[in-house]
C-alpha cells in the first residue's frame, strides 16, 4: 500500500464520558479502494464515519487526509461527498438544483455547472427527471440523485451511511451492483457503512468489522469469510457452527482440541484463550458426511440428525453433536435421514478454526 | 345454505355495487354523525352570528318599519325640492302614530345617524302631531322651521330604505354628497381610517418582533435534546395557563413608573428619571408580543422539528459554510412554519382589544375598541358591524397573500 488517503491514529470517541463508542481506532484507507465499515448497530461504525466527515470530533487521536490532520478542518472544507441514510435531498429544490448545489457552493460558472449536471444525470440514468422535486421520485431514483450529488463535485472521498437501507430487497441488490460499477468506473475512494454483511461482501475491496467500538478484523471479503479472526466475526459474517472445547496441544499452525463431546479434533490455531478454552468454528459448507472408505483423513464428529430441510439447490441438515447444534449443506439427492439417526461428520483441519470462547460470540 | 351461496355467486355487478354503496353509506352516516356536533356548533356559534352581524352593517329597517307609508312615499320623491303637501301630511300622520305606539324613538335614532338633531325633531313632531292641522306644510314649519329645510327631507329619504351604505361608508371615513356621489370626510373628522392604520401598524410591528424573537427560540427548542426541549416547550406554553387579563395586568405592575423595570434601570444608572413605559405604544407592543409569541413559536417549532438534521449536514458535506447552509437549506424549509406563525399572530393582533385597552394610551386604541364602543357603548350596531366587516375584509385580503408568498398551506402539523 502506498501512502493511505485516510489514516485514523488512536482515535477515540465518547459521548457520555464513560463509554468509548470508538476505541483505539487505527485504520488506513487506500486511495481508490471501496472500504466497508460493517457491524451491528451501536458498534461505532457510523460514529467513525461521522468523525471522518467532520460532524463529530474525536475525543482523542487524530484523523489524517492525504497526510494532513483534519482536526481543525470543518466539514464543509473537507470536500468529501456524503450519501445519507435517508438521502437528505433538499425537498425545496428540484433534482437539478440538488445536483448543482455543491457546484454552486464552489462558485462554478453556469456553463460548467450545466455540463457537469448533464454528465451526472447520464451517469446515474436520471434523464428527464431534472425538474422533479425529490418527493416526486421513487426511492431508487432518490437514491441515485443522492449518489450523483455526492459525486458531482469529484471529491477524493465519498462517504456512504447505509444508503441502501430504505430500499426493498430487489432494488437494494440492483443498486449494490450499480454502486460497485460506479466505483470501478470512477476510481473514487468510497467508505461505506452498513450492517448488512452480504452487502459488505458483495461491494467491498476490504471490510472492517466493528464490534464494541473496535475493529475486529480488516480484510478482503473472501478472507473475512474463509478465515475469520475471532468468534464474533465468524458468527457475524455468514453462518457458523461453533463447537466448544479445550486445546490439548499444539503442533505448528495447528492444535488439538478436545471437544465437549469428548472427541479430539485437529484445528487451525487462530485465537484461543490462555486457559485453552476455545470455540471451533466450521462453515456449514465445509462440514460433510463421513465417507466410510478408510481413506478419510479429516476430523470425525459424531452427531444425531434433527431434521433435513429441502432448499431447492441444496439440502440443509440440522444435527446435534452432544448439546451443540450443527448445520451443514448437502448436495441434492443425498439419501434421506430419519430424525434421531446417528451420523458421522467430517471436516478438514484447515477448515476448522480454533477461535476465542467469547461468550457473546455464541449468540 | 347452498341456495344462499348460489345466490351470491350469480349476483350481478349491479347487486355488488349496491352492496358496496350500502356499506359505504353506513360509513358516511357514521362519519357525518361524528362531525354533526362540530358542524352544528360552527353554524350556531360562527356562521350565523357573523352572518347576522355583517347583515347589520347594511341592513337598517328601523325607520322604514316604524313609518312604512311615509317611507314608501319617499321613494317617489326626486330630492330636488321640498315635497308637496301629501308628504307633509304623511309626516304628521305617521310620526304621530309611531309616537303613540312607541316605535318612534328607535326610528329617530336611525334618523339621527343620517343627520344630527333629527332625533329631537322627530320626537318633537311626534309629540306635537295631534295638534297639527292642514295645511300640514305650514303647521309643520311652524312647529319647527327645520321642516322647511331640504336637508331634513334628504335625511328622511336616506333613512327610508331597507339597505343603507351609510355605516360602511362611515367606517371608511366616507360620506354621501347630497345629490349623489361619495367623498372623503374632512381630515379633521377622520376617525376610522386612522384607527385602521394604527391597527395595522401595531399588528405589523408585533408580528415582526414576534418573528425576530420567536425564530431563534423555536430553533433552540427544535435543536435541544429531548429533556431540555421539553422544558423549553413548557416555558413557551406556560403563559397559556394564565389568564390574558392577569398577564396584561402584570405588565402594568412591571412597567409602571414606580415599577420593577423602571426601578432596575434607575438603579443601574441607565436612565435618570422613570420613563413612561406603559399606557403608550411601547407598552402595547411589549404586552402583545408576550401574549402572541407562542402562536408564532409553536407552528414554527413543529415545522423545524420535522426537518432532518441530515439536511444541514448534507449541505456542509457539499461545501456549504454554516451560514450558507442555513440560508439555502434550513431557512427555506422553515418558511411555511414562519408564514403560518406570522399569519396567526397578525390576524390575532388585528382583532386585539383587551390589551391595548389596558396598557395603551388613547392614541393606541385599535379598531376593535371602536367596535366594542359602538356595539356596547352607543348601541350603534350598524356602525359596529360595518367596522367588523372592514376588519374581516382586511383578514380576507391578508390571508391569501400570505398563503401565496409564505406557503402557509404547506404547513405540516405535528
Summary of the model, kept short:
The complex is a heterodimer of chains A (363) and B (414). With 363 residues, chain A is an alpha+beta fold. Chain A has helices at 45-53, 95-105, 110-123, 139-151, 169-186, 197-203, 221-226, 231-236; strands spanning 6-14, 20-29, 34-38, 60-65, 68-69, 80-83, 157-161, 189-194, 206-211, 214-219, 241-251, 254-259, 264-269, 277-282, 288-289, 299-310, 315-321, 324-330, 342-347, 353-355.
How would you characterize the overall build of this protein?
The complex is a heterodimer of chains A (363) and B (414). By secondary structure, chain A is of the alpha+beta class. Chain A is built from 8 helices and 20 strands. Chain A has helices at residues 45-53, 95-105, 110-123, 139-151, 169-186, 197-203, 221-226, 231-236, and strands at residues 6-14, 20-29, 34-38, 60-65, 68-69, 80-83, 157-161, 189-194, 206-211, 214-219, 241-251, 254-259, 264-269, 277-282, 288-289, 299-310, 315-321, 324-330, 342-347, 353-355. Chain A has a 6-stranded mixed β-sheet with strand order 6-7-8-3-9-10, sandwiched between helices. In chain A, strand 1 and strand 2 form a beta hairpin. The longest helix of chain A has 18 residues, at 169-186. Chain A is elongated, with a radius of gyration of 25 Å. Chain A starts with 5 loop residues before the first strand and ends in an 8-residue tail after the last strand. Chain B has 20 helices and 2 strands. Chain B is mainly α. Chain B is extended, with a radius of gyration of 31 Å. Chain B folds into 3 domains: 1-47; 62-160, no CATH class; 192-410, MetI-like fold, CATH 1.10.3720. The A-B interface holds A 53-55, 74-82, 84-86, 88-92, 101-102, 105-106, 149-150, 153, 159 and B 308, 310-311, 313-322, 324-325, 328-329, 332-333.
Amino acid at each position: 500500500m502506498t501512502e493511505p488517503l485516510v489514516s485514523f491514529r488512536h482515535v477515540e470517541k465518547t459521548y457520555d464520558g464513560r463509554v468509548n463508542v470508538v476505541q483505539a481506532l487505527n485504520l488506513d484507507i487506500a486511495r481508490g479502494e471501496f472500504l466497508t465499515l460493517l457491524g451491528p448497530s451501536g458498534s461505532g461504525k457510523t460514529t467513525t464515519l461521522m468523525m471522518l466527515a467532520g460532524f463529530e470530533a474525536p475525543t482523542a487521536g487524530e484523523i489524517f487526509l492525504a497526510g494532513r490532520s483534519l482536526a481543525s478542518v470543518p466539514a464543509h472544507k473537507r470536500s468529501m461527498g456524503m450519501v445519507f441514510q435517508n438521502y437528505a435531498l433538499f425537498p425545496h429544490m428540484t433534482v437539478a438544483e440538488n445536483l448543482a448545489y455543491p457546484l454552486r457552493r464552489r462558485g462554478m460558472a453556469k456553463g460548467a455547472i450545466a455540463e457537469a449536471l448533464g454528465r451526472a444525470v447520464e451517469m446515474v440514468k436520471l434523464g428527464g427527471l431534472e425538474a422533479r422535486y425529490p418527493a416526486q421520485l421513487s426511492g431508487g431514483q432518490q437514491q441515485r440523485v443522492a449518489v450523483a450529488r455526492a459525486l458531482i463535485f469529484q471529491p477524493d472521498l465519498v462517504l456512504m451511511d447505509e444508503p441502501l437501507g430504505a430500499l426493498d430487497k430487489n432494488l437494494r441488490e440492483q443498486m449494490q451492483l450499480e454502486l460497485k460499477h460506479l466505483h470501478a468506473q470512477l476510481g473514487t475512494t468510497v467508505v461505506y457503512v452498513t450492517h448488512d454483511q452480504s452487502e459488505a461482501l458483495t461491494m467491498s475491496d476490504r471490510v472492517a468489522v466493528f464490534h464494541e467500538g473496535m475493529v475486529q478484523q480488516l480484510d478482503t471479503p473472501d478472507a473475512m469469510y474463509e478465515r475469520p479472526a475471532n468468534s464474533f466475526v465468524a458468527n457475524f459474517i455468514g453462518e457458523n457452527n461453533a463447537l466448544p472445547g479445550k486445546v490439548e496441544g499444539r503442533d505448528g499452525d495447528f492444535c488439538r482440541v478436545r471437544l465437549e463431546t469428548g472427541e479430539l479434533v485437529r484445528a487451525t490455531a487462530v485465537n484461543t484463550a490462555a486457559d485453552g478454552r476455545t470455540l471451533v468454528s466450521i462453515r456449514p459448507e465445509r462440514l460433510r458426511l463421513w465417507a466410510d472408505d478408510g481413506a478419510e483423513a479429516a476430523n470425525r464428529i459424531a452427531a444425531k440428525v434433527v431434521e433435513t430441510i429441502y432448499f431447492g439447490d441444496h439440502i440443509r441438515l440440522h444435527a446435534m453433536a452432544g448439546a451443540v447444534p450443527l448445520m451443514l449443506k448437502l448436495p441434492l439427492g443425498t439419501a434421506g435421514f430419519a430424525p434421531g439417526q446417528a451420523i458421522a461428520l467430517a471436516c478438514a483441519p484447515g477448515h476448522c478454526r480454533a477461535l476465542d470462547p467469547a461468550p457473546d460470540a455464541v449468540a | 345454505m347452498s341456495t344462499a351461496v348460489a345466490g351470491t355467486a350469480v349476483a350481478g355487478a349491479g347487486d355488488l355495487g349496491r352492496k358496496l354503496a350500502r356499506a359505504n353509506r353506513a360509513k358516511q352516516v357514521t362519519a357525518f354523525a361524528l362531525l354533526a356536533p362540530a358542524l352544528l356548533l360552527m353554524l350556531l356559534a360562527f356562521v350565523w352570528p357573523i352572518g347576522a352581524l355583517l347583515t347589520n352593517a347594511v341592513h337598517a329597517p328601523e325607520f322604514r318599519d316604524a313609518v312604512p307609508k311615509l317611507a314608501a312615499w319617499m321613494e317617489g320623491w326626486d330630492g330636488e325640492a321640498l315635497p308637496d303637501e301629501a308628504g307633509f301630511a304623511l309626516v304628521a300622520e305617521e310620526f304621530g302614530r309611531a309616537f303613540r305606539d312607541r316605535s318612534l324613538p328607535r326610528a329617530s335614532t336611525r334618523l339621527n345617524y343620517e343627520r344630527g338633531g333629527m332625533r329631537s325633531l322627530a320626537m318633537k313632531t311626534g309629540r306635537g302631531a295631534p295638534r297639527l292641522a292642514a295645511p300640514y306644510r305650514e303647521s309643520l314649519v311652524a312647529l319647527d322651521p327645520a321642516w322647511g329645510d331640504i336637508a331634513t327631507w334628504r335625511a328622511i329619504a336616506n333613512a327610508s330604505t331597507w339597505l343603507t351604505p351609510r355605516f360602511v361608508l362611515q367606517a371608511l371615513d366616507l360620506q354621501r354628497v347630497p345629490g349623489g356621489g361619495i367623498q372623503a370626510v374632512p381630515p379633521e373628522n377622520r376617525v376610522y381610517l386612522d384607527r385602521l392604520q394604527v391597527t395595522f401598524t401595531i399588528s405589523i410591528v408585533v408580528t415582526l418582533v414576534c418573528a425576530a424573537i420567536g425564530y431563534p427560540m423555536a430553533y433552540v427548542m427544535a435543536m435541544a435534546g429531548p429533556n431540555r426541549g421539553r422544558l423549553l416547550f413548557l416555558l413557551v406554553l406556560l403563559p397559556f395557563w394564565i389568564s390574558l387579563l392577569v398577564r396584561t395586568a402584570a405588565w402594568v405592575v412591571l412597567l409602571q413608573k414606580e415599577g420593577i423595570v423602571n426601578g432596575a434601570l434607575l438603579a443601574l444608572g441607565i436612565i435618570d428619571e422613570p420613563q413612561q413605559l406603559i399606557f403608550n405604544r411601547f407598552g402595547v407592543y411589549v404586552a402583545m408580543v408576550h401574549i402572541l409569541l407562542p402562536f408564532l413559536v409553536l407552528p414554527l417549532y413543529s415545522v423545524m422539528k420535522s426537518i432532518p438534521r441530515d439536511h444541514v449536514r448534507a449541505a456542509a458535506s457539499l461545501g456549504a459554510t454554516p451560514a450558507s447552509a442555513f440560508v439555502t437549506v434550513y431557512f427555506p424549509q422553515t418558511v411555511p412554519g414562519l408564514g403560518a406563525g406570522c399569519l396567526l399572530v397578525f390576524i390575532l393582533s388585528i382583532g386585539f382589544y383587551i390589551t391595548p385597552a389596558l396598557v395603551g394610551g388613547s392614541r393606541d386604541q385599535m379598531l376593535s375598541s371602536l367596535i366594542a364602543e359602538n356595539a356596547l357603548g352607543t348601541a350603534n350596531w350598524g356602525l359596529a358591524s360595518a367596522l367588523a366587516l372592514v376588519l374581516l375584509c382586511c383578514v380576507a385580503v391578508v390571508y391569501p397573500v400570505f398563503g401565496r408568498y409564505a406557503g402557509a398551506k404547506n404547513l405540516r402539523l405535528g
